[in-house]
Structures are given as structure tokens and as C-alpha cells.
From TrEMBL:
Organism of derivation: Hoylesella loescheii DSM 19665 = JCM 12249 = ATCC 15930
SUPFAM superfamilies the UniProt entry points to: Acid phosphatase/Vanadium-dependent haloperoxidase
Coiled-coil residue windows: none
Pfam families hit by this protein: PAP2
Top-level taxonomic group: Bacteria
Family annotation (PANTHER family): AT30094P (PTHR14969:SF13), SPHINGOSINE-1-PHOSPHATE PHOSPHOHYDROLASE (PTHR14969)
SMART domains linked to this entry: acidPPc
Start and end residues of each Phosphatidic acid phosphatase type 2/haloperoxidase domain: 60-178
Protein name: PAP2 family protein
Amino acid sequence: MIKTLNNLDATILLWINSFHTPFLDQFMSLISGKWIWVPMYVVVFMVLYMRIGLKPKLLVVLSTIGIALFFSDFVCAEFIRPIFNRPRPSQMGSGINHLVHIVNNYRGGDYGFPSCHATNSFMLATMVTLLFRNKALSIFLFFWAIAMCYSRAYLGVHYPGDLLAGALWGSGVSIALYALVNRFCTLTEVKGAKHTRYISIAGMATFVLLLVVAAVRICQGA
């Protein structure tokens, strides 16, 4: 059973990884970057501040997000991955590394189950969805999280199973922590916050910027 699932995982990964072009190589590499999305994270903080103000509840909300990040990122990388020790498809131990298209010589670390990129992006998408309860914002954030996951498979550094496990772990952390904290401090007061569209605008602007940068890189390399 496990062998069958691993073979299916590898087959889907190689299928996604096969649709590579010079432009997509650059674009997916940029999407996968962590720091490029900092402006969107800052806007999330700004919207929370505009809704809550400098009150103790703002500290509670930010602490909740921070603790969720700790469990999604640190626990994933330092505790869960060492248990499974599953090599990334781009690494020699995977057995398929010679079939994987590598972009910019990027192979990631040794192990990739679960994916911290998937964990963190779905943690944030789920937590912000629970806080703001805004349909349009939720659709954008989960689109962003899925795009982040797709970029990791495209780059050949994560199997779909790594990404699915990461998405479930990140979403689960947010749901559990939100429910726990909300029992003692009503986080749902953030619901209906104004200016939530600024988060989507910041995210979409980043996507457009990445498209432009990818195109410029291709032109410069031509």
C-alpha cells in the first residue's frame, strides 16, 4: 500500500515537473520565495491594527498567529521531518532525482515531508480566514497557498504528498489554536474588519510584480 502511494506520488510529481518553460522556471522560483511575500504579511498586520487598535486584544491576536507559526514551521521542520526522513524528489536518496527538472540548481534540504512552505501558507490562509470571515479574501488567500504549493512541486523539491500533509497540518494548527484561544478571548470580534481588500490587493500586486520580474529575467537571458 505504502509503495503504491509513493509511486503515485512520484508519478504526479514528475507530471507537474514536466510542464517547464524558461518563463515558468523563473516565475515559480520567485513565487516560492519567502521574503517576497513580506509586504502582504505587513498589510495583514496593518488591517488588524486598523480594526482593533492598540489594545490588549491586538497582542492576543498577534500572539495567536505567532504561536501558530511556531507549531506550523518549527515543529514541522525540527520534529516531524526527522521522524519520517523522506528525501525530497530532487535529492539523490529519492531514486527519481535524475528525472526531476531542477531550476537554478535549487534542490532544497535533504528531507521534505511535510512541506513547511505548504504548512505555513495554509496556516496563514486558514487563520486569516477565521479572523476576518471575508469570502473574497479567503478565496484569494487559498489561491495564494495553492500557488505556493504548486511552485514547490514544479521546482521538484516536494512530492504532492508532502504538500498535502503540510496543508493539513498548517490548517489544523490554525483551527485548533483559534478555537482554543477564542474560548478565553473573543477573536471573532475581528470579523467584518474593514480594509480587508488591501490584503488581496497587496497579494495580487506581488503576483503581478513577480510576472514582470520573471519576464525581465527571460529578456535579459535571451
